[in-house]
Amino acid sequence: MPAYNPGMTSRARRRRTRFLVVLAPCLLAWQAVRAVHAAEEVAAIPDTLQQRIAVCTSCHGVHGEGTPGSGYFPRLAGKPADYLVRQMQDFRRGLRKYAPMEYTVRQLSPAYMREIADYFAAQQVPYQRSAVPAVSAQTLQRGEQLIDHGDPARRVPACTACHGSQLTGVQPSTPALVGLPYDYVSAQLGSWRTHTRAMAAPDCMAVIAGRLADSDITAVAAALASRELPADIHPQPAGSVKPPLPCGVLAAGASVP
Amino acid sequence: MRGLRRLFAMLLLLLVLLAGWLVVAADAGHRPEARTGIGPASLSDPALIARGDYLATAADCAGCHTAQGGRPMAGGRLLPTPFGNIPVPNITPDRETGLGRWSFADFWRALHTGRGRRGEWLYPAFPYTSYTRVSRDDALAIFAYLQSLPPVHRPTATGSLRFPYDRRESLGPWRALYFRAGEFRPDPEQSAPWNRGAYLVQGLGHCGECHTRRNAWGGLAAAPTLGGGQIPVQNWYAPDLSTRQHGGLQGWSAQDIVQLLKTGQSGRGSAFGPMADVVAGSTQHLSDDDLQAMATYLVSLPARAPVPDVDPTSHDDALVHQGKPLYAEHCAACHGKDGRGMAGVYPPLDGNPSVIEPSGINATRAVLLGGFAPLTRAVPRPYSMPPFAQRLSDAEVAAVVSYIRRSWSNRASAVRPEAVGRDRQTPAD
């Protein structure tokens, strides 16, 4: 439309002016609303790692707190980063078998795995308790004994010997055991016995799981899930424990590729 | 009754063996001549090896010939088929368990005619139906590359093919019906990029092995070319690749195709499931010229016959109705109320070929499994989608997937809860 039309009558020109006076602010307002709306839409998808890893956090929690209500998905928060990287690699290599995890991590690069592991390792959220099945006092007592003292007759070391006196894990590669659901712990010990979870040789946990009696798995999983939750969630410093068994993942110079 | 069935099975076997023998006799004249003058010296040419590395990537050899957690090309996977599992062999140059004793003539014969070193018929899980189109020069480069790899000692795993498929003779009729040996012949009417693209898509890329419907005998449908099909046992749907009217990629430009193959995503959809692995392991590494050539060929695929509109039952309408609030709750934050997604972050669902493909399997499994978008050089830190298998029931997944498949411009069929239950049981890998 030409800006000025000399053929226009003055009435038409007045009408056009009125039209523009009314329309222009409307157009401007509409543009502004649209811009704000667009900005809102863009802002709705944050450019953060947390947003990127929705596939992880939907089961493990936004801060890696786990899903205690699910009774299964383990807590990742505060676990040593090397341990978390190793687990993703083990799922990718098929050492640890769990189809949803194998499918999810199958393409991740070492750099992205490290970034994701660092994120969860840095999260500081209190431990939460999940449901424990009703077990006898005797079973709980057996579990407590295994945790703190092991069973010398079966050559089973205490959990605390490697996982820290408060079971909050040990840097750089030993996970916390408190705050994990009963089903998760018992499934892991079972997996080591059925060779659907393994780690770098010598696989000390496979040895220990093999030495436990069947009933010990229930006992130790129930006792761990019933354990008083320590206030300090941090893993113990590196070198603060002396593992009683040779462990591939703890060997000097064992690096996470 | 049982005796009758056994007699019938025996007769069938005899028939198969006879047909196989006839084809052997007919095939006998086609033995490729052993090419002389290709010795270790010419195979160790670094330029040839480098070219072979690129071509082996285009053919995605490692995609099948590498086991989970295994050394590249050392085999060890079991490829699931409706006829049983087929062990994938070691193709590193190990003398006992790999291709160490193979000559180029052996390799060419395998690629071009689907025969092993002793002349035995190979199972077409090895896609020689496509690789037969690969040129001799390219085959030589790939052979040189494979022979340059560090040898890995890894015996081939034991498969579990059912009778009579465990007998290679049973392949006779199959070959007679579904296999024609023949190198790619360029079409002089078409441009050089089109011919290059057709060669890559039909030959090395072996795209048609998934993107074509297979019949009950595992034979590829003759037409339409790259018309899409369900991948048996793995149960993903490889969409029709025509970009023209009624095509699976209707409305896609050549640029959209290049983007998807290079980065794993385009403005019209993202690769996931097995295609995500193809992008990560193969196509993202191809040159821009080759990707452009593949796209040039694909956009030339003809329009398809219109699919009759599905007439929704009242049950389907109810599913769609139930899906709407579930979509608002679980999906809209990322994929948008309008199903348009978020450019470069979350794929659109409106018009997305994987959402509206005929079977509904892809959308269902994407909802169940979630997962990261493909990890490529262009997208090293991909966004992801949560899995809903542990959060939504079969009925809820069916409702939300039906809603997605029938909203906006989408007019695909609804998905029933029983189908979701079946997809839930399909192994993720």
Describe this structure in words.
Mean pLDDT of chain A is 87; it is low at 1-7 and 38-43. Chain A folds into two domains: 12-45; 49-250, Orthogonal Bundle (Cytochrome Bc1 Complex, Chain D, domain 2), CATH 1.10.760. Chain A is elongated and about 110 Å long. Chain A contains eleven helices and no strands. Chain A has 257 residues and is mainly α. Chain B has 429 residues and is mainly alpha-helical. Chain B has three domains: 38-178; 192-298, Orthogonal Bundle (Cytochrome Bc1 Complex, Chain D, domain 2); 315-425, Cytochrome Bc1 Complex, Chain D, domain 2 (Orthogonal Bundle). In chain B, the strands form four sheets. A two-stranded antiparallel sheet of chain B has the order 1-2. Chain B has a two-stranded antiparallel sheet with strand order 3-4. Chain B has a two-stranded antiparallel ribbon with strand order 5-6. In chain B, helix 1 (2-27) crosses helix 8 and helix 16 (361-369) packs across helix 17. Chain B is globular. Chain B starts with a helix and ends with a helix. The model of chain B is unreliable at 28-36 (pLDDT under 50).
Strand content of chain B: under 5%
Average predicted confidence as pLDDT of chain A: 87
Largest interface: A-B, 30 and 31 residues
What's the β-strand tally of chain A?
0
Number of helices of chain B: 18
Largest sheet of chain A: none
N- to C-terminal distance of chain A: 67 Å
Task: Name the CATH homologous superfamily of the largest domain in chain A.
Answer: Cytochrome c-like domain
Number of structural units classed as domains of chain A: 2
Number of strand elements of chain B: 8
CATH topology term of the largest domain in chain A: Cytochrome Bc1 Complex, Chain D, domain 2
Strand content of chain A: under 5%
What would you call the shape of chain B? globular
Low-confidence stretches of chain A: 1-7, 38-43
H/E element sequence of chain A:
HHHHHHHHHHH
Q: Determine the structural class of chain A based on helices, strands and strand pairing.
A: mainly alpha
Distance between the termini of chain B: 40 Å
The arrangement of helices and strands of chain B along the chain is: HHHHEEHHHHHEEHEEHHHHHHEEHH
CATH class of the largest domain in chain A: Mainly Alpha
Average pLDDT taken over every residue of chain B: 91
**Helix count from the secondary structure assignment of chain A:** 11
